[in-house]
Each structure stands twice: as C-alpha cells, then as structure tokens.
Write a structure and sequence with these properties.
seven-stranded parallel sheet; 3 domains; 348 residues; alpha/beta; Rossmann fold
C-alpha cells in the first residue's frame, strides 16, 4: 500500500468522496471481488475514521430479522437519517452469487433514495459474514451514512463473528427458537447487546422472554458458574466453549424486548433502547474499545489473507507442495511436516 492510486481508482475515489451512490456500488464491487488495487483504495478511504452507528441483526432463520430491520430503517428515515444496509445472503452453489432473499423482503426500502442496500454472498464463510463484509461496512461508514445496518445469515453458533462488525448487536429470536438454554448453546448470550423476541403475538413468546431474562440475571450474578445444569448440561462450560469473545463490557445489561415487526408493535421501544445503548457506548468509552478491537481483527484478517495469497501464488511453494505430496505417498512425510517445510520456506 504505497504510492498514488491508478487513475481509474483515483477517479472512483473522487466520485466516492462526492457522495455518488454509483461510485459506492462500484467501490463495493471492487472490494468484494478483490480486484487489483482494492487494498490501496481501502487505504485511502480509511484515512477518515469511523463515524456511523453500526447496528447488527442476527438470529436463527425465520426470526424476522429482515422485517425488523426494515421497521428500524423506516423509523430512522422519519428522522432524515441516511442509511446503508448490508444483507449477507447464502451463496448460490451454482452462480456463486447471493440469493438476494433479504433484498426481496426489503423491497419497500429499495425505492427510498436515502437508503442504500447491498446484498452480499457468504462465499462459504463459516461465520455468516463474508470476509469482505467488514470492509464493505467501512466503505459505507466512510461514504457518510448516519447509520449502517447489517444482517447476517442465520447459521447458529458461528454467528459470533458479527461482534467484530457492529457497535450494537441485536439478537432476534422467536418463540420457535426454543428456550434460553438453546440461546446459550448457540453463544447468543455472549454477543447480544439487545435481545428481541419477535412475533411476540405467538404462543410461547412470554415464556421465552422470561427464560432469557432469567438466564441473563444468572449470568450477571455469576451464579451460573456453580448452578445445577439444566438436563445435565454444564451451562458455564457451554458458554466458555461456544463463545470466542470475552463478555461485553460492564455497565450494560442486555434488555429483552418483545416486538411484532409486521405490525410495528414494540419498534419504538427498540429504537429507544438502541439510542440508550449508543449513549452508554459513548459515555463509558466502550465504543472506542470496540473500534480498537475491530482494528486489531482487521490487521489480523489482512495479514492472514495476504499470507495465503503470497503462499499459493508462489511457484517455489507450489513446487514444495508437489514434492511433499510425493514424500507423503512414499510414507516419508505427513501433511504436518510438509506444512512446516512450506512455512519455513515462506517465512525464511
């Protein structure tokens, strides 16, 4: 990442800074497809620090995440906020592109000139978020949106990755999601800043709200460390095992809200809670801590990506791989020793 941008990218950057939505779309395609110069472009864009409020929506399939996001977006638009929306869809096994299901469900927002919607494919990413989604969120932030909303694929335990991308994480559940124990097993208790039980007009909603609040109370009181396990499950062990993140900072207890996104019931309370959480983030210093954590993860992601790119584009490494395969065939080596040989050659 040195030297000036190529003329085409410099022109794109100028139009990006001028606030042209077409330029934003092309910049996202540049980054998503990892075209030549995309990291130089990001380097220039990220000279401006983060400003937008980032809100993530996650939860199991069918929880109504898209509907709830649409209601939140509509509410924000009544306050003249400019919004960027990223919907991460499963990758089509045939075309390799996003299935665009979320964009279909957000069709009411698509005609609003104050909302920019982008659907992205997971491209096989196990974390629900595409690897480049974090960079796309940075682009939307730098573009000048007041808020950036991101919705992940409902893939269960691997949804923890969203914590690296959002300031406020909203976990959306429905009565059919099961009890609070299932939420703990999925690691959702660890990542949520706000719990929303959507489709609250269905049977079992009140019970789920009660179970979630009880689970949160037990965790806050640290009683869960020694509490008898439900159905023989060690909840503390599950929480430690399934969560790759430390618990959220002290001072904020995730509330449990009830909504019916289709009718708008409970959305005002959700907006007030989002606002309250933002205030707490800023006043407590937690917002800057989370941003610092994102920068650390970003550096690690870029190093990992560049090491893979460097390794598998090297003729020397590919030759070492072929030779290693021959040695493994003759029982003179194993995949582990070959891998160490490649790393030794690569890092020498």
């Amino acid at each position: 990442v040195t030297g000036p941008l190529e003329s085409a990218l410099a022109e794109l950057l100028e139009r990006f800074h001028d606030g042209q939505p077409v330029a934003l779309g092309r910049a996202i395609s540049l980054v998503e497809n990892e075209r030549p110069g995309f990291q130089d472009f990001l380097h220039e864009v990220l000279r401006v620090g983060p400003r937008a409020a980032r809100i993530g929506f996650t939860g199991p399939p069918g929880a109504g995440k898209s509907s709830l996001l649409s209601m939140v977006a509509t509410n924000c638009r009544t306050q003249d906020e400019q919004l960027g929306v990223v919907a991460v869809d499963p990758t089509s096994p045939y075309s390799g592109g996003a299935l665009l299901g979320d964009r279909i469900r957000m069709s009411d927002l698509a005609t609003d000139p104050g909302i920019f919607i982008r659907s992205m494919a997971t491209r096989g990413s196990l974390g629900g978020l595409a690897t480049t989604t974090k960079e796309v969120l940075d682009l939307m932030d730098a573009f000048g949106f007041d808020r950036v909303l991101v919705e992940t694929v409902g893939v269960g335990q691997t949804e923890l990755e969203i914590t690296a991308a959002a300031d406020t994480v909203i976990v959306v559940l429905v009565p059919e999601s099961g009890d609070a124990i299932q939420a703990m097993k999925a690691g959702l208790m660890e990542i949520a800043d706000i719990f929303v039980v959507n489709k609250a007009d269905r049977p079992g909603a009140d019970r789920l709200v009660k179970d979630l609040r009880q689970g949160l109370h037990l965790r806050a009181a640290t009683a869960i460390e020694s509490a008898p396990a439900h159905h023989g499950l060690d909840l503390a062990r599950i929480m430690r095992k399934e969560s790759c993140e430390e618990p959220r900072g002290p001072g904020w207890s995730p509330p449990v809200l009830s909504t019916v996104a289709q009718s708008g019931e409970g959305v005002e309370d959700l907006m007030d809670t989002i606002k309250a959480h933002r205030f707490w983030l800023e006043e407590s210093g937690e917002l800057e801590e989370r941003r610092r954590g994102r920068r650390k993860v970003r550096i690690q992601d870029v190093v990992d990506r560049e090491l893979r790119r460097t390794a598998w584009r090297s003729d020397t490494v590919l030759a070492e791989l072929d030779q290693g395969l021959e040695r493994i065939q003759k029982r003179k080596d194993t995949p582990y020793s070959v891998a160490w040989d490649i790393l030794d050659r690569l890092l020498r």
